[in-house]
């Protein structure tokens, strides 16, 4: 079971790794835009410095064509380190890029997964992590937990060395359900994970013990 945080806010990362059993950090273009770092690569180096090499760092590409995705991945690895997981959206071009990157021995997280067949394509292409978007899948009227469960079964049945990294959460129940339906890892905003401890009963019990 892996708890990963979905943020590039340095103070949030420092606090999260100090207080919780966090094993990694994920980022995407919208999260980076919110933080607005002056120098993207310098900022991500700071993230790596905080979390260390023992935790995973997942950085998403912004390119859409295979050749550009691969080129961008090489730049990320050159600037940060070769342990970074390159987040590649599972599009037609993205799957081709995943195949090429894995052939080079580069870590890949297949992201923006909304459909089971998308996930199967990423799995067959060799992705290390596959990230279904839980809340967004639900907003489309589909069942994200069914997708996670079926993907988990396929990984076990066919013996793939791949983990489900469920993403896009609005609350703790979604996180809990993702784990219970077979996701080995989740990535969520720090504020969502803090909600785990916002239960009045927990606070009441804590005061009683004092």
Report what the structure shows.
The protein is an alpha/beta fold and 210 residues long. It has one domain (2-209): Alpha-Beta Barrel (TIM Barrel), CATH 3.20.20. It contains 11 helices and 8 strands. It has helices at 10-19, 29-35, 40-51, 66-79, 92-103, 116-125, 134-139, 144-158, 172-180, 190-194, 200-209, and strands spanning 2-6, 22-26, 56-60, 85-89, 108-113, 129-132, 163-166, 185-188. The chain has an 8-stranded parallel barrel with strand order 1-2-3-4-5-6-7-8, surrounded by 7 helices. Helix 1 packs parallel to helix 3 (40-51) and helix 6 packs parallel to helix 8 (144-158). The chain is globular, with a radius of gyration of 17 Å. The two termini are 31 Å apart.
Largest sheet: 8 strands, parallel, barrel
Secondary-structure element series: EHEHHEHEHEHEHHEHEHH
Count of runs of 4 or more consecutive helical residues: 11
Derived from helix and strand composition plus strand pairing, the structural class reads alpha/beta
**Total beta strands:** 8
Intertermini distance: 31 Å
CATH level 4 superfamily: Aldolase class I
- Annotated CATH architecture: Alpha-Beta Barrel
Radius of gyration based on Cα positions: 17 Å
* Overall 3D shape: globular
Strand order of the largest sheet: 1-2-3-4-5-6-7-8
Strand % is 15-25%
Unreliably modeled segments: none
- As for the CATH topology, it is TIM Barrel
Pfam family, one: TAL_FSA
GO molecular function, one term: aldehyde-lyase activity
GO biological process, one term: carbohydrate metabolic process
Organism: Faecalibacillus intestinalis
